[in-house]
Amino acid sequence: MEALELVPIFLPENITVFCLDWAGCGLSEGKYISLGWWEREDLAIIVDHLREKRRVSTIGLWGRSMGASTALLYSQRDPSIAGMVLDSPFSNLNRIVDELAQQYTSIPSFLINIAKRMVASSV
Question: Model pTM?
Answer without folding.
Answer: 0.69
